[in-house]
Amino acid sequence: MNRLWFLVPPSQNRLSPVLRVTCPRRLVSSSAGQDNNLSLWVSQPPNTKLSGAESRKLYRTFLRAGSKAVVGTNRQRKQIWQWTRTKFDKNLTETDPEKLGDLWIRSQNTLAFLKIASQRKGLEHKIVRNLCDFQFYQNRFNERPNILRRNIPSDISYMHAHCMDDLDLVIEMLNQELDLCL
Question: Where in this chain does the record put each Complex 1 LYR protein domain (predicted)?
Fold first, then answer.
């Protein structure tokens, strides 16, 4: 039986800076040599801003893990790539050591989550697949809204405007509960 390691942020553990919590999982072993590319990117959280080579390595690791998690569907793979690019652009200039440590923990947990999603077709895989599908349809709806929305009542237009709020809430709760960066 393999164990999945999730890292707990220092604020929840007063004894050590980073606490490893194990969660027993039965992982399906993939063919030899495939998991080597999904290894965790650094052993220690960075105290300063990542260099260009380190950030490229981390970015490519996320792309590989995301592509393996949604194998076989180009549409979902493109959504993973878009999601990864926006997250990296948002946190590219971060220099605060405390926030960098938190981002490091979240990135390690997200990589572990994506690795599990790529190894077995369980709940993690379904979560990643559904998030990609919802993101695709949200982007498609925002690009070209329905032509019938021109003369609709205000309550229905409000419903159309706020239909993805629940999805954003679910993603936020997943990020908080599992300490991920989805």
Answer: 56-110
